[in-house]
Specification:
With 615 residues, the protein is of the alpha/beta class. It has helices spanning 26-36, 40-48, 54-61, 77-89, 102-117, 129-132, 138-147, 164-172, 213-228, 232-252, 260-273, 281-290, 298-314, 318-325, 330-358, 388-399, 429-434, 459-473, 496-505, 598-609, and strands at residues 18-20, 94-97, 122-125, 153-156, 176-180, 193-197, 376-379, 403-408, 414-420, 442-445, 449-455, 482-488, 516-523, 529-531, 537-540, 549-551, 564-573, 579-588. Helix 13 crosses helix 14.
Amino acid sequence: MIPFPPSGEAAPSWPSSQWTEQEIDHTAVARLMTGLGLGRPVARILVGRGYSTPQSAADFLSPRLADCLLPDALPGISQAADVIDRHLAAKSPIIVFGDFDTDGMTAATILHTALRRIGGRASIFIPDRIHEGCGVTPNAFGRCLREHPDTRLVVTVDCAITRESVCTDAAARGVELVVTDHHENTLAMSSAVAACVNPCLPGTPEALRHLCGAGVAFKLAHELARRHFASPQEGAAFMRALTALAAVGTIGDLVPLVGENRIIASRGLDILNRPPHGELAGLRALRNVVGIRGVIDASALAFVLVPRINAAGRVGNPRVAIDLLSAPDSATALPLARQLAAFNNLRRQEEAAAVQAAQNPDAEVTPAIAGMRSATILYNPEWHPGIVGIVASRLSARHHLPTIVLTADEEPGLLRGSARCPEIPGLDLMVLLDQCRDFLTGFGGHRAAAGLTLPLETLPDFCRRFVEVCCEAERNLDMRPESRIEAWIRPEEANERLLLEIQKVGPFGTLNPPPLLGLRGLTLATSPLRFGRSSVNWRLDFQETRIPGILFNQEVMPFREGDRLDIVFRYNRDNFGSLQFLVRDIRPSATDLNAFFPDLAEDGAMLAAEPLPRP
């Protein structure tokens, strides 16, 4: 046993992350600057992200729904629509079986809305997180059919059927199953599964490979609209509100914002920010309740709206979120939005209590390996299952270690939990857990996040094995997070134009993050100033620019007036609309501000040597 956090932990060194850069094709940068009229920093960002021609960059900067593939390009869509059409013709009841997170609930709402609009007798079923667990479990499926005994078709969204007993039960009751999902290695195919739609299946076009559950449901709804609406214009008008719901699920599920995900997220946000037309009453009510007055961007959606929708499935009642997402008017939506806000307050209280308890050495169950820490495993049977994933994320981000947070399962003698892993090259959570599978009853997820269950009696052995495999995996790794600098800029380039061009690169999310920029040789005009209630936030003012640097959550600040620094930052506005450098990391500078910048010189030389006409 060792205390948490480790006793005698040293103050962070500067820089606290790995500063990396990539080689850039300066000819391509010059072409984008000339061909699209872009400034040098954003031209470099686009080239670094693979958009090296004016045409590819222009397409990326202006995503259009018209560029989406037809839905039947997704394997299984046509078969799924055929099965649904057969049940629509027979007027048999259809259940949309969803999940209790934002992706699952928006996916269920999308497909349910489409089915009802074309005349289907459809209902939504969401499992109980605590008593039934995630996905189509036997307990959840049994309750679903008890509550809807006339059901003849169950369509899953954002979840698969992983147990053969569910398929057998469905066949015995004369119920057909259509599976739509986006997770890997979760499909149990059998004769009872009438159709399967999943972008992980072979034959999926690259643009569709990263669809989330809501994205898959959106494509299936589009296919149904193509078949049942009298004209393309009528179908397009109907799909408008569903695009915004798909954007909420896409951004909320943290899937890569590339390919069609980027188009869905971008166009959906546009629709959400347009004047209301009697649609999206629930999302608009939630926006008003939380006090968002300006434009909703991907960040506001991910960090303000989505947590409140998720809270219903974590600590409240997911039915409230489902009813909000499909609310017909503001009068219906407003009390539901207030309930979600109350659920979120409860979630935050439980999360804060769990994080505080996690700091208690008595909560620590991780054994030490040769006096070193390679992972964190925490267990408390009183923690709510809905918040263990958030606690794991908080602790993994704070200490840059693989972290598992466990609580008691509904089934006696069983533990359930969430695992999180820092984004360190060469560190894969699924590989780590796979080496511990002998002690687990189940696990699933991806390289940075996973869920798991295990018997209480195997916890000590599992802890030892997990710490051992983490220790081996981390042996030659730099466990500091990476700061990948996409463009070094000069102080005078930090202006309104730069921010406007950066915003065109959004919406930001997985695989399309807000760009990290760098400034060299800045001189502190005054010693850094503390601000905020916690006294761990700092304002940095520089002689070379009037734009301040803001650094959050650092207790130690060794720099003083006159020190010369390099900073890595994201460029944005504060809550009052003023420009700011949101500083990620700092290092003492050894570079004179007027020293030679190779990237500036090479980009400029290429631009001068090869002037190109605008396309």
